[in-house]
Amino acid sequence: MKGNIERALKSLVGLWVGDAYGEQFFARPIPECESVIPAGTWKYTDDTCMALSIVEELMTSGEIRQQSLAQRFAERYSKEPARGYGAGVRTLLEKYRDNLDCNYEARNLFGGGSYGNGAAMRVAPLGAFYCDDIESLIREAEKSAAVTHAHAEGRAGAIAIALATGFVSANPAISGQEMLRKIVSHMELSKVRQQIEYAMDIPAQDLERAAMDLGTGRKVTAQDTVPFCLWIVANYRESYESALWNTLRGGGDLDTTCAIVGGIVSCRHKVPERWIASCERLPAEIMKYIEKITLN
Ligand code: RVK
Ligand code: MG
Question: What's this model's pTM, rounded to 2 decimal places?
Answer without folding.
Answer: 0.98
